[in-house]
Write a structure and sequence with these properties.
With 639 residues, the protein is of the alpha+beta class. The chain contains 13 helices and 23 strands. A hairpin with a 2-residue loop joins strand 20 and strand 21. Helix 11 runs parallel beside helix 13 (574-595).
């Protein structure tokens, strides 16, 4: 028997066995501690920390209502983040967060703009719910201390919204009016500043434990463990990047908030941490994945040899910046009027394709974003970070057009969820960019992503609270609740798995590394990493063809086979996990792109010319691509 200790209690269970492998004999990768919690949040961006705070607030409030002044017996919330808490995509968000605030705006208008940008492929119910609940979530952010830019912060109120607004509302591509709350051009930094403070100031450390430089290896689910039951998430195995130890973290609810997968492409606006980790782990846990072919390329990323991943916000075009291309005689001329009635404020998929066409047509290396018609004082106040960063590269945006190119930016597909974050795996939630609610359809409307993060975080935690309330009511009346995770255990058929993770330790194996050894062949990681990103950019980028997609599929099958062998033979490292996840997500994108035999939104296949009909809010036939482990990709009518 194996002895487990937690909160001064001892538990006894069967000997430790390997997870998806043979038992370790003399392994050099040590087991980390066994950790129990109510909520395991994987990811520390806007969605993740919002969910962590919501969960902690709910647990604290419940204890106060019960008159319990003691500290929680088990850790209420654990946040796992693979680098520092601020190493996330959210902190880089520049443009802002959408919310209807003006009397001249409406929920119907915001919904319409979202549906049109999404090429009629959005889930209307999801869109309407997120749009209508936005004001309440924005009020919570303001109460938490987020300081959005007001009209008085911008010199002379240049290009601000009408006089009825306290805030300086921005406008970006695809929007019919100004509805974007922002904090200059550092909205993500301001949101994350407030959230980190809210999650780390007393008494929150008693309720939220943040584990930096920890990376989730895999979701622990009953199906992966081979239990004959509904598939239920039990937590995750987590790598401590500093020590190399892998802990077993058991949780009532596991929330994936890992962001996107921009690093799957050679050129991206995303930071290095965006490797599709959550999507890959959810797939391995048998969750449904959908619409991965819809990868958004941001039209304007700075083109400069010394700049890396520096986004030039779409808010510049909202302030009437103009895209221009250089003619043979050296003159800069606008070109978007040839591609869309909204010109420079067209949806992102249209603008990115237009830029790509112009670059191929002219042979130029970049196009230019010209906002020199505004006074320098306005630009310094409205876009402080962009202005200062450009000056570092010798570009004064008040005098010089900004060289820009498209780059991979946002994953509109992801883990298939409801607005509540529910996945097809019980007690596993996905929120933010790693999730796909159908809000974005085939192309995301600018500044809807941060909104989705805070709304989904709220809805996910509220859903868990409703489940707990239903379970408590059923227990009081001695009725069985269908959602309760009580399943038969194969080793002990008469035993049911209780709702409390403290009792699961008898049945969930700790991580072992089998016969894996420390690898001296890390060149495999760097070589495959580079090859994947290059062929994804060349074959599965802005413009695609069947031939290119099939070529990419052949390559990724071979590379993934090599990576999986390397994974099982070698001790776990962060780099190896990221490569494994990156390769998995790359294949998902390719498979979904091959399955969708039409051009729509972000998926542009030259073998299937797009419709020339004007965009509609909802297409007659909305089809989603769906992936699930052990099943071939298939097409489904959207509900």
């Amino acid at each position: 028997m194996y002895e487990y200790a937690w909160n001064n209690q001892k538990y006894f269970g069967p000997p430790v066995v390997a997870f998806e492998g043979a038992a370790a004999q003399g392994s050099t990768q040590q087991q980390g501690p066994l950790i129990l919690c109510d909520y395991l949040v994987i990811g520390s961006g806007l969605a993740g920390l919002s969910a962590a705070k919501k969960a902690a607030d709910a647990i604290r409030a419940a204890r106060e209502r019960a008159g319990d002044k003691t500290l929680p017996a088990t850790q209420p919330v654990i946040v796992v983040t693979k680098k520092d808490v601020l190493d996330c995509n959210s902190v880089h968000a520049q443009g802002g967060i959408c919310c209807v605030t003006l009397p001249t705006d409406s929920f119907a208008s915001h919904t319409h703009d979202t549906m049109i940008a999404g090429a009629g492929m959005c889930n209307r119910d999801a869109v309407e719910h997120i749009v209508k609940t936005a004001p309440a979530r924005m009020q919570e952010l303001v109460e938490m201390g987020v300081q959005f830019t007001t009209r008085s912060d911008v010199p002379n109120g240049i290009l601000s919204a009408d006089d009825s607004s306290v805030y300086d509302l921005g406008k970006e591509g695809g929007h019919s009016c100004r509805r974007i709350l922002h904090a200059g051009d550092i909205t993500g930094e301001e949101l994350m500043r407030s959230l980190v403070s809210a999650c780390t100031e007393a008494p929150m450390p008693d309720y939220i434990k943040i584990l930096p430089y920890h990376m989730a290896v895999d979701i622990i689910s009953t199906r992966k463990l081979g239990w004959p039951s509904d598939n239920i998430a039990l937590g995750a195995y987590v790598l401590d990047s500093n020590t190399g130890m892998i802990s077993t973290v058991l949780a009532k609810y596991t929330i994936l908030a890992t962001g996107g997968a921009g690093k799957v492409y050679l050129y991206t606006s995303n930071p290095d941490v965006t490797c599709g980790d959550g999507i890959a782990m959810a797939y391995r846990a048998f969750a449904e994945i959908t619409n991965m072919e819809f990868y958004q390329f941001h039209p304007t990323v700075l083109y400069h040899p010394k700049a890396k991943n520096f986004l030039i916000s779409e808010a510049l075009r909202g302030e009437h910046a103009i895209l221009k291309v250089r003619k043979p005689n050296g003159d800069l001329v606008e070109f978007m009027s040839r591609y869309h009635p909204m010109k420079d404020l067209a949806p992102r998929d249209v603008v990115a394709r237009a830029i790509d066409k112009e670059l191929k047509r002219t042979g130029e290396l970049c196009v230019y974003l010209d906002i020199t018609h505004h006074p320098e004082e306005f630009l310094r106040h409205r876009f402080p970070k962009i202005f200062s960063r450009l000056l570092e590269y010798g570009i004064n945006m008040a005098k010089d057009p900004i060289p820009v190119v498209p780059a991979a930016h946002y994953c509109c597909g992801g883990i298939r969820t409801a607005v509540t974050g529910e996945t097809s795996v019980k007690n596993l939630y996905a929120i933010g960019e790693c999730a796909c609610t159908g809000l974005h359809g085939a192309n995301r409307l600018a500044s809807n992503s941060l909104l989705e993060c805070v709304v989904m975080a709220h809805e996910a935690v509220q859903h868990t609270l409703r489940l707990q309330a239903a379970a408590a009511a059923a227990a009081a009346s001695q009725e069985q609740v269908p959602q309760s995770p009580r399943v038969p255990i194969p080793r002990s058929p008469a035993v049911l798995l209780p709702a409390d993770p403290a009792a699961w330790v008898k049945f969930v194996p700790l991580w072992t590394s089998g016969n894996a050894v420390d690898s001296d062949e890390n060149v495999v990681i760097s070589h495959n990493w580079d090859e994947i990103r290059r062929f994804m950019w060349d074959y599965v980028g802005i413009f695609r063809t069947n031939k290119r997609l099939k070529r990419a599929k052949n390559r990724i099958v071979l590379i993934r086979r090599e990576i999986e062998q390397f994974y099982w033979d070698s001790l776990i490292t962060t780099n190896l996990l990221e490569l494994r996840n990156l390769a998995s997500v790359a294949e998902m994108i390719v498979d979904c792109a091959l399955a969708r035999q039409e051009s729509v939104g972000l998926h542009f296949n030259e073998d299937f010319p797009p419709s020339t009909a004007p965009p509609e809010e909802t297409r007659e036939r909305v089809i989603y691509t769906v992936l699930q482990r052990a099943h071939a990709v298939h097409l489904e009518h959207a509900m």
